[in-house]
Amino acid sequence: MTLWNRTLVTAALPYANGAVHLGHLAGAYLPADIYVRYLRLRGRDVAFICGSDEHGVSILISASKEQVPPQTIIDRFHAANARAFERVGIRFDNYSRTSLPLHHRTAQEWFLDFHEKGVLRRYVEQQLFDEKAAMFLPDRFVTGTCPHCGFDRAYGDQCENCSKYYAQTELLQPKSLLTGETPVVREAVHWYFPLGDFQQRLEEYVESHAGDWKDNVLQQVRSWLKAGLSDRPISRDLAWGVPVPLDGEAGKVLYVWFEAVLGYISSTREWAEAQGAPERWKDYWCSPDTRYIAFIGKDNIVFHCLMFPAMLMAKGGYILPDNVPANEFLNLQGQKFSKSRNWSIELNEFLDRFPADPLRYTLTLNMPETRDSDFTWKDFQARNNNELADILGNFVNRSMHFAHKNFGGIVPAPAIETDEDHAFLADFGRAADAVADAIERFRFRDGLQAAMSFARTCNKYFNDAAPWKTLKSDPGRAATTIHHCAQAVRALGILLDPVLPETAVKIRGILGLPADALWTWDSIATERLPAGHALGPLALLFQKIEDDVIDTIITGMETAAAEADAARPVEPPSYPPIKEQITYETFSSLDLRVGTVLSAERVPKSDKLLKLVIDIGIEQRQVVAGIGKAYDPADLVGRQVVFVANLKPAKLFGIESQGMVLAASESDGRPVLLAPAGDIGTGSIIK
Q: CA–CA separation, 657 vs 671, rounded Å?
């Protein structure tokens, strides 16, 4: 087992073209902060690094729309997002910017190092050129029809409908977003990074972590490796970005995918310089006894598991990420976050209404660790009222109020302890171990559940001991109960500190400890407040949220979204072009039958796949169908479907699929199962 002397933690650089919302927080920043806070309670040496990603086409587009310089856009959102992180309790050691000269120098140093080593390649390629604007068009400055699925609002590099990548010259009916003109094709010269040259080393690197990386990360990365890696462009013709540092390359900047990840390194360099130790950053990036953990959302998995590691390999002397615990996406009230539809909650707006800790608590318990999850206002209210207020807050308030009322606001000395007391005290260590084990495996939901399970144990101990009864009949018994309750309040403060930092500060105050009092994870099971210790004033930990407050918010969101939808131009759905004609004989070779679903269940570790058992009249078949996001398994049992009976079996996620159910695909990609219009016998032939 590797012994780590320090830990480097990075969180994905938020793009400075919009405000951070709850989905971003749950995806990368909250789990990273929980992990760092926990490590610091263990006394570990940690550097927590982040910053704004401030280059790219989207910023130029926003600046063009507002008719302001790009610097205006990035200054606005860098400041707003830094404030949001601070307000929600995210404590970076350094929150930098990729527009800073230090970052430009860092990215250019890496480019020049690769250039001097002969790593890079230079290609002449075909690129779209806007003659009216007199410039080559970056991928996001052009839109047209996807060559794969026919989606008519596809960008120049990737279709948002089918997710496929392509060269911008493959786009059908391209239009410039700058002028609306049809661009022409011209030759351009660009630098490429030979990602494919690192295929074998990357495969070995990824598989060396097969036992500890999350399955969603491994599956996505393996899919890319299986398809094969190829050269990727690292320069583009653009006026905003890090200039390519070579003579004769005027007008070219480094591609954002290449230079943005280097923002982690430049931010660490900035942090080291601010400490008066300019070379200290190397301890965290170049020492083999440093563990590097990169927190990201699932849209950044490939960049942090393949592209950035390949760059680190090419540079030499740098450590690679030891874990990339990427989360899936968080939805809002059952729908994807959408700024254009007003279906979003900006973090600063949320914190204008509610304190940070109930949000951190709710998002942690709903964290999309293995599959997409959902934030709902009603769930937020219930978590705050029924769990934080009624379980955690109730125990702290009742026990400490009892101490103030009956023991003069001090921790009373214990008398003779019972077996129940010993069992309760033993739970301190068990809870600390359970929470620690979960956090160290990046299972933050499990860790918080374990901490709250201990809070329930504390309530039970207090209720079972009934100090309000023993106060008169056995004062020593009551004193022992309250003595142990004070220790439990302290233990809860430490256990919940990574998730509820503001609450932990309040608990310190209630216990009569300074707000910056040093407490450690290991002390949960070993250290105690001494008898006679003076407690602090009581304070309400959590304010309950009334129904009318939540109902007003939900109504306002739904109204705003409806108004945005009504204002959008009505466009006909976009469908792929018709495929090549086939003969009747080809069609008649299909054996289509009416089937009835006998059972349905989700495939483990997949949010899309369902395992169905289908009766097709003459036998039963097992099928794996990619309809899990559109259908609940319980709703499918007894339903008739159209079944392809003579399809060659195939394995998906290790499960044999013996046929196929047919579904139509909406323009948004949502599958809709096909079924007979009326009652018809199971096994009936369709022709």
A: 18
